[in-house]
Amino acid sequence: MIVKVNVFEIVKQEIDIVEVFNKYCSGELEKVGRSLRASSCPFCGSGDGFTINTEGNYYKCFSRKPGGCNGTGGSVINLVMKVEGIMERIEAVKTLAVDFNLDVDFDSEQIENWKRKRENEQKRLQLIEEFINKAQQRLTSEHREKLLARGLNAEIIDKYRFGYCPEFNRERLRQLKEDQPGKYQQYKKIGLISGKGNFLGNDRIVIPIWQHSRPVYYILWDWNGTEAKDFKYLNPAGLDIPDFICYQNGNSELWVVEGVFDFFSMIAANKSVAVAFGVNNTSGIIDRLQKIKDKLVYVAFDNDEAGQAGAAKIVKTVGRAEKIDLPAKKDINDLLQECNGNIDSFNRKLAGLKWPDPLPFTNYKVEELAPAVLPEWLRDFVESVAEFTQTPVSMAIMLVLSALGTALANKGEVEIKRGYTEPLNIWTCSVLPTGSRKSPVFSKVTEPIEEYEKRKTEEIAPEKESAERRKDLLKERIKNLEKQVVNTDDEGQRINIFNNIDNLADEVRDFEVPSIPILFADDVTTESLAQLMANNFGRFAVLSPEGDIFKIMGGLYSRKVNLNNYKKGWTGKETIKEGRMGRKGVRISKPALTMGLTVQPTTIRDLESKNIFRGEGLLARFLYIMPDSLIGNRKSVFDVAELDKLAESRYKKGMQALLNSKPEKEEGEEWEQHKIKLSTEAKTLLHKFSIEVEKELREDGRLYNIRDWGNKLTGNVVRIAGLLHLAAQVDAKKGEVKELWDKPLSGEAMLAAVSLGRKLMQHALKVFSLLDVDPEIELARYVLKRIKDGKEKEAVGELPKNKDELDRAALYKLTRDKKDIKKPDDLEKPLKLLTELNYIRLQERKGRLTDLIKLNPKSSTLNALSALKGKETEIIEV
User: Fold this and answer.
1) How far, in Å, CA of 541 to CA of 522, rounded?
2) Contact, 381 vs 400, CB < 8 A?
């Protein structure tokens, strides 16, 4: 058939999607703005999501609820394909052309044949539906009991209109043929009468097979068991048996079963399921499965020779399929019956049959930090920013903590007990992959600090200009005196002039010109760090959406690693002293350096000076997060709410209040800090947490391998508690704070900090795992890659030694170029590790044959499928 290339566009433009909806779907359309909204979505049932754009002539369902269509839509062609279960676009075009009398350039004879076929099919479907409706009315309580005994529930029986067909003996059938030939032909048309003239529905339960809103086929079940085994299930005579009937509900897995009761058992369990109606036509099943790209496939055919052979053929051809080994002489419906129809028990049985999820090689499961630990004005802000940017909320929380540290450092300190205090500066590092939108979050968090710097710069500008003029005048006086020295011969006068020059030079050297307030930068050398801190009363912050500061600390400019000022800046109690030739030296007795970084995993993994950074304790000072990436699961920009302007405004006001707060005393070049004492409740919570951390530092504890980090965790938690406590004193609505320093640190703030500290342990383990490469893990990863390669070769018959299936011997051939694998026994450890982590199974064989290697189908599709969790849409297609 030759079709002009524009036939699809003609159909999309000429046929009104509203008319298509009214013809194929049920439900009312209501005008909303320029669009029409359906009372319910024909696919997911949502009452608020299905919308028709009449100008663009397309539909879309915006429902994001569980079971919603999640933003899917399309043209009239897509709508008909989905409603009618049509797989090919050209078939949908022909259907629309026939149903709407559209003159498109098909071959005329062929379109007429298609039209007749379509009309006959519609009549047949109408007759089948009438038969199903009458059969449903005849279903008695005795029949229902039989169906319930098979594990089906009343909802399935009623929803899919199971029915009953009474006995119809040969005499009665002969009489029908003579008296009502039209009715007889109708029965024959829908397959109730065989070619030999036998009535197939005698005393059988009718099991309808549905396509969306109407039955398209049925199975006749001998519910009394009177027929021979081969005739227990009958198909309609003369009707093509569908080779693939599929019910999809958005789950990340699809079960393929053999029989109709297996099919409805899985529907009862809310599983995506396809039924094969026998296993002889596996080529048709495989063709359909290869078009379903987003699901793991579990083939659960009957545990007999034919079923196992058919399942093996599917698994070998469909790369993401797994063969389920059912118990001997059992099928899926048998398992449901064993559970007495209890769906929870049935689902547990099914879960036990599947491969478990592969475990990460470094199995660190991390939790998102909870915004609830923050005061309300900060909580609302981080939640809004995270939603608006579609980023992990943990990143916004960590950056906000660093912003608080920037505002409050060196103004106060937390007194744990006499002689032991912790400052309020903090170091955070958020580790996320490239493309995680780190910069937009960073920009929103630091905006009030930049506004504060700008305002202070404007305020100080007149004073700075005046001081610079006075200093210039002093320098001018020195120049004039130097001229006088040259022009005088009087020795006494020369001595007096030199004395005046020395005095003026001392005055110039000590003359203080107010500095432009710079509270933070995205990178700073160790040399300039001291001066910047001195200019800001001992405090400074490195806030950066990138990790360049690590390169600078590693000697990017100085060619040597010098971490002293950075480390002293974190501690807050070690004096920084720097003498300068010809200039006033720098002395900071209480330096306070805050850091807030967002970096990529490769920044940590590829640190050139990581051994020095780790050895000198620099990396141990950071609090890390490494949340699961949202990339691939983010909402469209049009589906995300605008940034909450009220939350943003309150955040800015709250931060300005903290930035404007004062230390205990501001005399001289350094500040005297407020002391925040612990409440009794806070002391108790901190005491328990410190004991908990100490236990984790033991050889059998979680933090043993990162003891350097764990030793600083309790102190870091105190710093977090101090910041949260002070933030809680802010009235963000008014942008002011009262009695900021007067209250003891609350138990609520300490509890929130401890909660964060516990979650940060696992994040730290995950980040530190980037620094340490385990050779056994690296070898296992290599072997896994070669196993995947071997499975691809297995599918096309290209394994070494002419093997049909991948076994140890074939794998050794594929891996022996690796220097760590010199003999077959060298595969023992990596195969054991891969087995323990659920990536493979080893199947023993008799005799001298080596073990077969079975690959977990989830090992290559796990990331792709994670995006599907939680989505549920109902599609039943033939």
Assistant:
1) 8
2) yes
| Spatial separation of the C-alpha atoms in residues 237 and 145, rounded to whole Å | 28
Give the model confidence (pLDDT) of 422-455 as tens digits: 999 999 999 999 888 999 999 999 999 999 989 8
Q: What is the DSSP string of 45-113?
A: --SS-EEEETTTTEEEE---STT--TT-EE-HHHHHHHHHT--SHHHHHHHHHHHTT----S-HHHHHH
Give the whole-angstrom CA distance, residue 730 versus residue 737.
Answer: 5
In terms of Cα–Cα distance, which of 557, 546, 544, 555 is closest to 594? 544
CA distance to 5, 98, 104, 464, per residue, from 101 (Å)? 20, 5, 9, 83
| In 634-702, alpha helices (H) | 645-659, 680-696
Share the mean pLDDT of the chain. Answer: 84
712 has a pLDDT exceeding 90: yes
Amino acid at 594: T
Closest of 665, 759, 679, 684 to residue 722, by C-alpha: 679
390 Cβ contact partners less than 8 Å away, ≥ 6 residues apart: 437, 630, 634, 635, 640
Strands 50-53 and 58-61: antiparallel
What's the CA angle centered on 619, arms 617 and 624, to 5 degrees?
Answer: 140
C-alpha closest to that of 215 among 181, 251, 191, 180: 191
- pLDDT given at position 230: 54
Q: What is the rounded distance in angstroms from the CA atom of residue 100 to the CA atom of residue 87?
A: 20
Q: What are phi and psi of 840, to 5 degrees?
A: -140, 165
Signed CA dihedral, 422, 423, 424, 430: sign only? negative
Dump strand ranges (E) for 266-380. 272-275, 296-300, 321-323
CB 423 within 8 A of CB 592: yes
Between CA 142 and CA 150, with CA 144 as vertex, the angle to 5 degrees is 115
Long-range contacts of 93-96 (CB under 8 A, 24+ apart): 93/7, 93/8, 93/11, 94/118, 96/11, 96/15, 96/20
**E strand intervals along 262-339:** 272-275, 296-300, 321-323
Whether the predicted model's global pTM rises above the 0.85 cut: no
Helices 76-84 and 89-99, packing angle to 10 deg:
100
294: phi then psi, degrees, rounded to nearest 5: -110, 20
Q: Measured in Å, how far apart are the chain's first and last C-alpha atoms?
A: 24
Q: Which parts of 817-867 fold into alpha helices (H)?
A: 828-836, 862-866
CB 371 within 8 Å of CB 382: yes
- Here the tokens at position 602 are 């490769």
User: Among 712, 424, 709, 672, which Cα is nearest to 572's?
Assistant: 424
- CB neighbour class for 191 (10 Å; exposed up to 12, middle 13-18, buried from 19): buried
Reading the block at residue 62, the tokens are: 């915006």
**How sure is the predictor about 774, in pLDDT bands with cuts at 50, 70 and 90?**
low
Taking the CA of residue 181 as centre, how many other CA atoms within 13 Å lie in the half-sphere pointing to its CB? 1
Residue 209 contacts by C-beta under 8 Å, 6 or more apart in sequence? 215, 216, 217, 218, 219, 242, 245, 260, 878
> Is the per-residue pLDDT at 592 higher than 90?
yes
Place of tokens 């905006």: 447
Instruction: List the Cα angle 449/677/650 in 5-degree steps.
Output: 30
270: left (phi over 0), alpha (psi -120 to 50) or beta: left
